């Protein structure tokens, strides 16, 4: 049984490795598949980065809500009003 070299792109078989490597350079299916997987990988990275950014935004939003709750609970205390209003002003600059 002769050993064959198979193209992963189109499935064509070659008797020697040189024949395969020559074919690989011109095989559209193989280069297309490689580009597709590369594109897919890039897309995955983009999705991961977008998820990371979204996660950060959610954390900031949660933090903001916590600060708001803290503000409303401390509003009754006179000595805390100035602090909470500063925090509120500070937060509004970021919204
Ligand atoms: Zn091929």
Summarize this structure briefly.
The chain has 95 residues and is mostly helical. The chain has three helices and two strands; from the N terminus they run E-E-H-H-H.
Q: Mean pLDDT, nearest integer? A: 83
Class of secondary structure makeup: mainly alpha
- Report the order of strands and helices: EEHHH
The biggest sheet, with number of strands, parallel, antiparallel or mixed sense and barrel status, is: 2 strands, antiparallel
Number of domains: 1
State the distance separating the first and last CA atoms: 71 Å
Strand order of the biggest β-sheet: 1-2
Shape: rod-shaped
Protein architecture, described:
- A two-stranded antiparallel ribbon has the order 1-2.
- The protein contains 3 helices and 2 strands, in the order E-E-H-H-H.
- 0% of the residues are buried.
- A hairpin with a 6-residue loop joins strand 1 and strand 2.
- The protein is mainly alpha-helical and 95 residues long.
- It has one domain.
- Bound molecules: zinc ion.
């Amino acid at each position: 049984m002769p050993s064959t070299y198979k193209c992963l792109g189109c499935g064509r078989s070659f008797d020697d490795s040189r024949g395969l490597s020559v074919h690989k350079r011109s095989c559209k299916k193989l280069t297309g598949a490689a580009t597709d997987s590369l594109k897919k990988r890039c897309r995955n990275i983009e999705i991961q980065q977008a998820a990371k950014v979204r996660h950060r935004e959610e954390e900031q939003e949660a933090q903001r809500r916590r600060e708001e709750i803290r503000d409303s609970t401390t509003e009754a205390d006179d000595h805390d009003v100035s602090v909470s209003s500063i925090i509120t002003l500070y937060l509004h600059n970021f919204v």
